[in-house]
Write a structure and sequence with these properties.
Blueprint (H helix, E strand, L loop, with lengths): L15 H14 L1 H20 L10 H19 L5 H24 L6 E3 L6 E2 L3 E2 L2 H20 L6 H26 L2 E3 L7 E2 L2 E2 H21 L2 H10 L5 H16 L3 H16 L17
Antiparallel strand pairs: 1-4, 2-3, 5-6
Helix pairs in contact: 1-3, 2-3, 2-9, 3-5, 4-7, 5-6, 5-7, 6-7, 6-9, 6-10, 9-10
Organism: Salinirubellus salinus
Keywords: Membrane, Transmembrane, Transmembrane helix
Pfam families: Caroten_synth (PF04240)
Length: about 290
């Protein structure tokens, strides 16, 4: 397979439907590159940056942001047809919440624990939090939301079960993400007075994620038609490819630092993806109109 990122032949889209079809095709024709090559190369570059091997490119904020956006393309393409005015309002309010809670966290230490960024992850708002925060925050919860929907099937109609399972999956993802990010120096916590930590991450961080995951799940419930989201998820093979990227990137990073509990959790998330048959690498047969 050609693993270079290819762009389908297209004229300038004249309608939203054409934009969505072009985005579907772009992702489908580059699934392996986006979901496997980008996170693998990204992990190597992050580790090389942590070892100060890349000179001026060490933790280059624009490279970090660009790579992250590319890996998010499958998720963006997947939800784009379902993003109507109600969904846009819900996402807008959730964006305000994300910036507000992150600024509150950096300033006061609540609810995640006292921490500060050690690496600029793109342009920084007020010099404190990344402007690209929604690109980092939303997928953590939305990927969990979608994976739970597949794993639970019809049982996902139960709000308490859906909420609890999604929060649990978000926590599992953060049990992988935070130790790797701290090891890289993305951010660090003030552990003064903290008796018990998980790979230099205080328990308050995970309590904070219970709050944020709950807010995000409720926003997704209110903003999106869940039946439509489920149909789109079932007919769109690439919609959870961003979670594949997450497992590869943060699995490699944690393995490099010998953090084997996060590696095992990443492997469990990967097993969930395999169970739902979300990434079979047969991308050639997947190139077809989706839900049209």
């Amino acid at each position: 397979m050609d693993r270079t990122l290819s762009v389908p032949n297209w004229s300038f889209p004249e309608s939203r439907a054409e934009v969505e079809r072009a985005l579907d095709t772009l992702v489908l024709e580059n699934r392996f590159t986006i979901a496997v090559v980008f996170p693998a190369v990204g992990a190597l570059m992050l580790l090389a940056s942590a070892e100060a091997l890349l000179g001026p490119l060490n933790f280059n904020p624009y490279l970090v942001l660009f790579g992250t956006i590319v890996m998010r393309l499958p998720l963006v393409a997947g939800v784009a047809p379902l993003t109507d005015r109600r969904a846009a309002i819900a996402l807008g309010l959730l964006t305000c919440y994300a910036f507000g809670i992150e600024l509150l966290g950096v300033t006061t230490g609540w609810p995640y624990g006292s921490f500060e960024y050690g690496v600029e992850l793109g342009p920084m708002l007020f010099g404190k939090v990344p402007l690209g925060l929604p690109v980092f925050f939303f997928p953590l919860v939305l990927n969990s939301y979608l994976l739970v929907s597949l794993l639970l099937g019809d049982r996902a109609a139960s709000t308490p079960l859906r909420l609890g399972a999604t929060i649990g999956t978000v926590l599992a993802m953060d049990l992988v993400l935070d130790p790797g990010a701290v090891a890289l120096g993305f951010w660090q916590y003030d552990l003064a007075g903290v008796a018990v930590t998980y790979y230099e991450v205080p328990w308050t961080n995970y309590a904070g994620w219970v709050l944020s995951a709950t807010v995000a799940v409720l926003a997704f419930d209110l903003g999106f038609d869940r039946a439509g989201l489920r149909r789109r998820l079932e007919e769109t093979p690439f919609m959870l490819d961003d979670l594949v990227s997450f497992v590869i990137l943060w699995g490699v990073v944690n393995a490099y630092f010998g953090q084997w509990v996060p590696v095992a959790i990443a492997a469990a998330l990967g097993a969930g993806l395999l169970y739902t048959d979300r990434f079979d690498f047969d991308v050639r047969s997947a190139v077809r109109p989706l839900g049209r």
